[in-house]
Amino acid sequence: MSTQTMTGQGVLIPALKADRGGQVLLALLLIAAVVVPIFNLMIPEGSFFHLSTYTVTLFGKYLCYALLAIAVDLVWGYCGILSLGHTAFFALGGYAIGMYLMRQIGPRGVYGNPILPDFMVFLNWTELPWFWEGMNHFPVALLMVVLIPGLLALGFGWLAFRSRVTGVYLSIMTQALTFALLLAFFRNEMGFGGNNGLTDFKELLGFDLKTPGMRVALFITTVIALAVGYIGCRYVIASRLGRVVQGIRDAEGRTRFIGYQVESYKLWIWVFSAMLAGIAGALYVPQVGIINPGEFAPINSIEVVIWVAVGGRGTLYGAVAGAVLVNYAKTWFTAAFPEIWLYALGALFVGATLFLPKGVVGLIPARKVKTA
Amino acid sequence: MIPLPPLLRLLMRLPLRRCLLAAVVAVSLPLQADDAVAPAADATAETTAEAAPAAPTAFPDVIRALGTASLSERTALLEALLATKNPNTAAVLTAWLEDHLHVRDADGAVFITAEAESNYALTDPLTMAAAGSEASEGFTKIGSNNNLRKLLRSALASFKLGNPDAAVRLAAVQEMLRAPDELTLTMLREQAKTEQDPAVLKAIAAGQAYADLTSDSADIRLAAVNVLSGALDGETLAKLEALREEANEPDERVRSAASVAISSIAVKRKFFSAIETLFFGLSLGSVLVLAAIGLAITFGVMGVINMAHGELMMIGAYTAYVVQQLMPTHLAASILISIPTAFVVSGLVGIAIERGVVRFLYGRPLETLLATFGISLFLQQLVRSIFSPLNRSVATPEFMSGQWVINDALSLTWNRLYIVVFTMVVFAALQLILRRTSLGLKVRAVSQNRAMARSMGINSDRVDAITFGLGSGIAGVAGVALSQLTNVGPNLGQSYIIDSFMVVVFGGVGNLWGTVIGGMTLGVAGKLLEPAVGAVMAKIAMLVFIILFIQRRKQGLFPQKGRAAEGH
Amino acid sequence: MSTSPATTGPIGLRTKPTGKRRSTNAPSPDLSHNIILYVEGVTKSFDGFKALNDLSLYIETGELRCVIGPNGAGKTTMMDVITGKTTPDTGSVWFGQTIDLLGMSEPEIAQAGIGRKFQKPTVFPEHSVFENLELAMACDKSVWKILFAKLNAVQRERIDEVLGIIGLKDHRFGKAGALSHGQKQWLEIGMLLMQDPLVLLVDEPVAGMTPQETERTAELLVSLAGKHSVVVVEHDMNFVRSIARKVTVLHEGHVLAEGTMDEVQNDPQVKRVYLGE
Questions:
Q1: How far lies C193's CA from each of A258, C132, C141, C171, in Å?
Q2: How many whole angstroms separate alpha carbon A95 and alpha carbon A103?
Q3: Domain membership flag for residue A11
Q4: Alpha-carbon distance C33 to nearest alpha carbon in chain B (angstroms)
Q5: Nearest to A180 among B366, B369, B540 (CB)
Q6: Does the structure's ipTM exceed the value 0.90?
Q7: Residue contact B384–A352, C-beta within 8 A
Q8: Is residue C186 assigned to a domain?
Q9: Could you give the CA distance from residue B238 to residue C91 in angstroms, rounded to a whole number?
Q10: How far is B224 from B230, CA to CA, in rounded Å?
Q11: Are C57 and C88 a contacting pair, CB within 8 Å?
Q12: Best mutation site among B373, B384, B522, B560 for testing chain A: the one with the most A CBs within 10 Å?
């Protein structure tokens, strides 16, 4: 971006003007938001052009992953914090919305209890745990989607950044964090459905989750969230704060000695990223219809990092490209050659780090940047 | 020698059963001491003749008579059977007790039977040879009643008491004490006079004391309490607990003695259970140390973060499995052979990883982390393709199975003991390599100042490869140890990688002693927490603790010292 | 204000604090005794090795001071202590009469008005030269303010001015990482200027510079003195001679001698341990 054009015009517009990859991405998202509903809802089933609801949901899932990947790219690509625990924030956001969806089931559960979700009845609980109170209100649930991941990130980051834990140590700590949450959520006593998690959702805001119309609505919401998330991140990166954060990545000591409280900056971008991941999780859960502790598994978090690495870190649109490409490959491989998938993923890890330091988008000549 | 007079006095005190008892003792004697045979047999002959003059005496006759005898006559026949001192008696008594003694209706012949579908597989009690198989319809069971069964059990126990194997005798004593009566106690008192094995003697003494607790005499009860105050087992504790109640024990002295005994036993049991927890903790810690110590080399000394470390352990465990499949009959040898084999196999895989991938990424720790994670996925899938995704189990050789029973309150499993020892040996060997060999010198030189080491003529590429190989080889050896504790599967490594990193980071990167002390501390702390909060919560607590700890002291327990450690 | 000696500076006299100096919200030092930096009795040992041993040093307001000494004399550790990177075992460090630097973090010290140039030039390689200077600029550096910060005309002018001073006008949009070693040194000095500090701690500013660049650096540092207090650590004796008014010789973490270049050069102890005899 040019610093000259910055006066008078604000930060965002020039940043987006200079961001060819971002323009392509936003254009594609706009097209998707228009085309997908038409091909799904207006073209009759059986037609060659009909897009199945399954595919719509699949695309929606990819875009949730893309939002998560942007969140990881923001801290890794721009601030040098390699998080191996970002799916913890993703899953917490998912659990928050999952709790709302569970409460919406009401008396239609297997046990017909109007207040308690099925798994609580099954465990012979008689009262709703305090942290489930209020989760039947959609605004409360939305607040929790960003609040819970944000608070966890704040607590963890405050401890970690203040004592200047960096690099590999920090990565391992984040991994331990999500691993501890994985173990905790597996416990029935936690009150989140234990092993099985939260599932059997019926409706969101009174709309049946299983109808094609609702699926398309969720898809469009995800598209909007991704676009807004992208633009928000682009603004942050283009702001002076973004430059400070990149300065921390490249020369942390220098940043400190010119008077920036490095810990506060790291904490800000870390919490922001965690909240973004929480939103991605909240969009993901109604579409896939389940959230369980498996989402906390450390391997998931590492996979997110590889999406970013494959796409090209430090670009934001590269993260989107990587998330969609790798997940599309995963869908295809696990259907066609399930036993090959882990080999391919393993090779992707090694290949991307050894041969593609700038990712897929780095292969595209600088003048004609395109994204998936 | 068996002193006869007390035995005879005893018989006089027990008019109802004296004949049988005599027979029992007489039968058991020859098995204990050959020179006791003659007088004992004499005594038996007299008494038996006196009690049941009409009964047959030869073994085949007695057996045959059993087939036709009424239930009440069978008591006498049992005595006669014992009197024959035939070696097959025990088998006949066992069969009788278990309702496997049948008479063939056609000819009155008696057989030991085993059910085979609707047929009986027959064994001739006279020869103990198989006698074919016949339909079960043609047979009638030689039954028993409660009283008879009790006698049968006692008779059998007395047989076992004569067994040369102390473990069999101990089992017999314990069996008899399950429902002790005057008869069994008398037998045991007799046994105590000749018994040499301390465990058997102890069991007998305890049984006697238990019986004495119900005595009418307060003095006897008091003495019994005093005897029992030296015990450690839970059963004794429960019996003494009961005595503290006034309803159960009228005598004040006995009650207070019981209280004193209980607190003394409780203190000792607490002590031993603390030792046991400590041991469990140390063994868990040893596993952590074994898993982490190879990582301490690659991560700590070289600064390379190897996420495939767990999979190198998995390869070691599978090596143990393969070696065992190749030599299934030599379990102990296969384990010993698989230790160096696993070291070499995992070490070579490690060197391949270093040469193929890691060396291109030196100085880029986060990329190294991702690339090695990719390798770990690859290796897991490779193992799934070769060995199937199912878990395999590696058999444990005999010297490592079972437990070392130290006393009633403390017994340690051998495999865990071996793991602790093995960890120490591996650690000592590693220290020796790093401190006393020229390779170790070079490794330390390169880790401290690569450029300087190079200019001194050290081939740092080679040292890197060998160091990585060493760390990986240790992982392989750890895998062999793990194969003795858990099933071997493709996910074996994954479950240890986070723990291992925690141990290395907690102990202080670059410090092998730190790794050992860190691992042991975490192991013991985990086991101490476990009873209070459960295994999962203990694990979570440990993770949270380490996260907090590292933030307080990011250099770990034992930081590397010096100005360089301050960092930039 | 308290009257206790602890808060009235090492001299023990109480004076009025001066008003706010710069656009930051950091406290301003009280310079009423014409001494801007007090380093008193500072000892710091690393694992038994005493990098600083009862070091005492006073820098006057507007002074240009050169600090020399053999390797391991404690020059860099001294700067680390002043800038808050290293906490000493004993001793005290005061900024003017009222500001105790030992309780402050690196950014707080930087905000208070002490700038530092590292021995190895450290700039932000992925940012343009212009952005490097922009980031260093003195302003409120709290997170939310920075998120919405915009350059005003005065600030742009100041950046242009500094670009001129350090001779990098032609490189303003070039990446800092692409600069030559000497240019990076200049950029780092430029970043120091942007901070508008009261005290500049400059660690080996001319290492890797051509003679012409060295000469220009000397001119710049001399011109800065007066408005700022400048402490230069340098090995290049000719350079030191060309700029120094007062020289401090460090040896084994302690001040060995202090005075003009001539005085120091003729000091027998200095001759023995440093200049070689």
A1: 11, 12, 16, 17
A2: 12
A3: no
A4: 34
A5: B540
A6: no
A7: no
A8: yes
A9: 67
A10: 11
A11: no
A12: B373
Residue A5 resides in a domain: no
CATH number at residue C263: 3.40.50.300
The DSSP result for A337-352, as a single string, is: -TTTHHHHHHHHHHHH
Low-confidence ranges of chain B (pLDDT < 50): 1-53, 561-568
Identify the pLDDT of residue B15. Answer: 43
The H-or-E segment that residue C255 falls in is strand C254-259
Higher pLDDT, B167 or A34: A34
Within B423-517, strands assigned E span none
Establish if B389 touches chain A: CB-CB under 8 angstroms: no
Q: Look at residue A38 and tell me if it is in a domain.
A: yes
May I ask the CATH class of domain B273-394+407-561?
A: mainly alpha
Residue C22 lies in a domain: no
Nearest CA to CA, how far is A160 from chain B (Å)?
A: 6
| Structure confidence by residue, pLDDT tens digits, A69-94 | 999 999 999 999 999 999 999 999 99
* Chain A residues within an 8 Å CB radius of C24: 259
- Residues B4 and B12: their CA atoms lie apart, in Å, by 13
Nearest-angstrom CA–CA distance, B443 and B439: 6
User: How many domains are there within chain A?
Assistant: 1
Residues of B in contact with A163 (CB under 8 A): 550-552, 554
- The answer to whether the pTM exceeds 0.95 is no
Residues of C in contact with B566 (CB under 8 A): 46, 86
Domain covering B182-271 assigned CATH 2.60.40.10 in the classification = no
Residue C125 sits in which domain range? 5-11+31-275
Given the structure tokens 């990883």, which residue do they identify?
B353
Q: Report how far residue B119's alpha carbon sits from residue C277's, in angstroms, rounded to the nearest whole number.
A: 114
* Mean pLDDT, range A12-40, rounded to an integer: 87
**Tens digits of per-residue pLDDT, B78-114?**
878 777 777 778 788 888 888 888 888 888 888 888 8
* Domain segments of chain B as ranges: 182-271, 273-394+407-561
Contact A3 C131 (CB under 8 A): yes
Interface test with A, best of B298, B544, B547 (most A CBs within 10 A): B547
CB pair distance less than 8 Å for A251 and C150:
no
Q: Is the pLDDT of residue C234 over 70?
A: yes
Note whether residue C21 is domain-resident: no
Question: In which domain, by residue range, is A350 found?
Answer: 21-368
Q: What residue in A sits closest to B369 (Cα-Cα)?
A: A168
Give the per-residue pLDDT at C275: 56
Does A234 or B266 have the greater pLDDT score? Answer: A234
Indicate if the pLDDT at residue C9 is higher than 80: no
In a mutagenesis test of the B interface, which of A81, A183, A349, A356 is the best target, namely the one with the most B β-carbons within 10 Å? Answer: A349
Q: Does C113 map to a domain?
A: yes
CB-CB contact of B504 with B292 (8 Å):
yes
The C-alpha atoms of residue C184 and residue A184 are separated, in whole angstroms, by: 51
Residue A30 has pLDDT above 70, yes or no: yes
B-contacting residues in A 149-168 (Cβ below 8 Å): 156, 159-160, 162-165, 167-168
C-alpha distance from A78 to closest chain C C-alpha (Å): 11
Q: What is the pLDDT of residues C29-40, one digit of tens each?
A: 777 778 888 998
Count Cβ atoms below 10 Å from residue A142 Cβ, excluding itself: 15
Residue A298 lies in a domain: yes
pLDDT, average across residues A167-188 = 88
Higher-confidence residue of C87 and B203: namely C87
Q: Which residue of A has its CA nearest to C141?
A: A260
Residue A86: its pLDDT value, please? Answer: 94
Which helix (H) or strand (E) is B131 found in, with range? strand B129-135
| Overall domain count for chain C | 1
In the prediction, which pLDDT does C26 show?
61
How far apart CA B109 and CA B98 sit, in angstroms, is: 19
Contact A239 C151 (CB under 8 A): no
Give the span between the Cα atoms of C197 and C227, in whole angstroms. 10
